[in-house]
Amino acid sequence: MDKNPYLPKIVKIRNVIQDTEDIKTFVLDYKPNFVPGQFYMIGLVGFGEAPFTASSASGTFLEVSIKKIGSLTSELHKLKKNDVVTLRGPYGNGFPYEQLSGKNLLLVGGGIGLAPLKSLIELVLKDRSKFGRMTLLYGAKDETQIMYEEHLKNLWPNMDVSVNVCVDRKKSASSWPKSVCLVPDLIDIVFKKKKDELRNTISIICGPPIMIKFVIKKLLEYDIEEGNIIATLERQMKCGFGKCGHCNIGGVYVCLDGPVFNYKEIKKFIEEF
Q1: I want to staple 37 with a disulfide (CB 3.0 to 4.6 A). Which of 94, 101, 113, 234 is the partner?
Q2: CATH number of the domain that 21 lies in?
């Protein structure tokens, strides 16, 4: 008899990586089986649980990057190797991986929104020849908030990924990243004179809702088809399986119907998003 998928497991922390001042990646001693874009409910007894997307597609351990923004995440950030968390999932849908085959990929991330894109990039790189050009646009508040810096500066560019990073502002005179702008503006910087490179392109966007809105608007200006603009929607989720109603937007439940939607779907409830 299968175990109840809604009951949490107790999982040990194998390692903790400090990504930025307020973001840590937790390597959990758990062999995941998920589609990039899906989410897990991770918690701490006595403090509750919250949804987090996996940041690695290695298939050996589950890696989850968590930003300290509230009481639960503050408690999670106190944990160390060999401590335990509760885990259930994965839930929701994932990125339409089969639909991406043969397409150029434009991945757009803001802040911790790079985490779910990282798991997708790792999956694509395992079978790189099936895909066209892959471009990553990523933005952070400043250079101290940039995640996965080694991947952005060295690893992915050496694996046929065009990486472009911007910051809202610079705290130092560092030459990297070169672009000081918002993420939608980075689209113009990279593609204004190379609009033809966006033909046959699917774009996947992960980040704050306000960024997603303006990135979608910009991509439509570049004539990317509505069905080829895909985003993960951030919405407060409490249960993960459609019972609490916290994640309802315009008649859909983000935890059940998403969290991945294309723009054809999003525009039906964009005013509530």
Answers
A1: 94
A2: 2.40.30.10
Dihedral angle of Cα 259, 262, 268, 270, to the nearest 10 degrees: 70
Q: What is the pLDDT of residues 154-170, one digit of tens each?
A: 999 999 999 999 999 99
Query: pLDDT (tens digit, 9 = 90+) per residue, 15-41?
Result: 999 999 999 999 999 998 899 999 999
Instruction: State the Cα–Cα distance between residues 152 and 12, nearest whole angstrom.
Output: 29
Our CA angle for 145, 150, 153, nearest 5°, is 90
Instruction: Answer for the pair 122, 151: CB distance below 8 angstroms, yes or no.
Output: no
Instruction: Among 90, 118, 143, identify where a domain stops.
Output: 90
- What is the DSSP annotation of 146-211? -SSHHIIIIITGGGT-EEEEEESS-SS---SS-EES-HHHHHHHHHTT-GGGGTTEEEEEES-HHH
Domain, as residue range, for 34: 9-90
pLDDT for 90: 92
Are residue 78 and residue 172 in the same domain, yes or no?
no
Q: Are 22 and 73 in contact (CB under 8 A)?
A: no
- Is residue 244 within 8 A of residue 254, CB to CB? The reply is no
Radius of gyration over every alpha carbon of the chain, rounded to an integer in angstroms? 18
